Amino acid sequence: MSHIPTRDDEIFTMQDPDSEYRRHQTRLNELISDGGSLSGRERNCSFLNVKGGKFATVSSVSGLDFLDDARTCLLYTSPSPRDRG
After folding, report:
1. What per-residue confidence (pLDDT) applies to 84?
2. 29: left (phi over 0), alpha (psi -120 to 50) or beta
3. 49 near 57, Cβ under 8 Å?
4. How many CA atoms lie within 13 A of 52 on its CB side?
5. How far apart (Å, rounded) are the C-alpha atoms in residues 24 and 2?
6. Residue pair 15/25 in contact by the 8 Å Cβ criterion
7. For position 18, what pLDDT does the model report?
8. At 13, which helix (H) or strand (E)?
9. pTM for the structure as a whole
10. Phi, psi torsion values for 28, nearest 5 degrees
């Protein structure tokens, strides 16, 4: 996990264009601009709400378990009145 500067001395240092933080940030921006991936080679995940605040992983059976890189997709349907009981 990346370290984000939070202390005053760290924030001041990160503003220096020659700082390690700024160099890494610039390199990350270059990778993304060139079509790089932040989480390449990770399978896509799909979850199903099974009530009670619990979710089941249904990636494989949903057909959404692609090997390629993808972005977030969300489908929300509100329950019908009879399901709220």
Report:
1. 58
2. alpha
3. no
4. 3
5. 10
6. no
7. 85
8. helix 8-14
9. 0.40
10. -60, -45
